[in-house]
Amino acid sequence: MDALSVNRSLSSLKLRTITIPSSFPSQQQQLALKPNHGTRIFTVYAIQNQEKDLQETQETLPRNNADDESYGEVNKIIGSRAVGGGAAMEYLIEWKDGHAPSWLLSDYIAKDVVAEYESPWWTAAKKADETALQRLAEEEMRDVDAVDQDGRTALIFVSGLGSEPCVKLLAEAGANLDHRDSSGGLTALHMAAGYVKPGVVKVLLELGADPEIEDDKGRAPLDLAKEILKVTPKGNPVQFAR
């Protein structure tokens, strides 16, 4: 399990091109992307006058002016949630200008801002740090099913590490026991079986994890365990017994 990659330099958002049709119905909303100095995010502007032609619409899009450089800056992330079945992450943003908190996809937030919020969580998961996980899981708006770049959750990590207390903690916090990662379709049970953690396998099954879910190669956790058994040196009695 690879360490979480963090970009420590300040990452600014890049201006993206939006195709605006020459005619559009009244009240249709168009998105304009505004880069700001410092921590940069996208700001949404509504263009509602259907009588404006394409040129006029483009002229109304906001510029990167020094006069309003503080508008839309992120104060901090105050919540998270996995979306698209665990394919991506959204974050609840607290704004410096006093606007109401709102949700943005991670792609639209500076990487170091996301890292500041997420790094403690993934560090705790990859070290199976029960105390730290407990404290972080108790945060009101944090999603315990947050995913990394490979679609793996904290439960998948602690299961592979063999931490029964952390598995129980995350399950009690509402973690999805049957989540499949995006890099192989592995569940927490697959990880526990693959890393030969029988105690965690037992706990997961008792908690209700589905032992029949297959990975992308069509293997249930028991099939994966059998594969590992075949290649385990029989000259190692302890490992073979496990």
Description:
This protein is α+β, with helices and mostly antiparallel strands and 242 residues long. It has two domains: 8-63, no CATH class; 115-241, Alpha Horseshoe (Serine Threonine Protein Phosphatase 5, Tetratricopeptide repeat). 33% of the residues lie in helices and 9% in strands. It contains nine helices and three strands. It has helices at residues 54-60, 111-126, 130-137, 154-161, 164-172, 188-194, 198-207, 221-231, 237-241, and strands at residues 74-83, 88-95, 102-105. The chain has a three-stranded antiparallel β-sheet with strand order 1-2-3, covered by helices on one side. A hairpin with a 6-residue loop joins strand 2 (88-95) and strand 3. Helix 3 (130-137) packs parallel to helix 5 and helix 4 runs antiparallel to helix 5 (164-172). The longest helix has 16 residues, at 111-126.
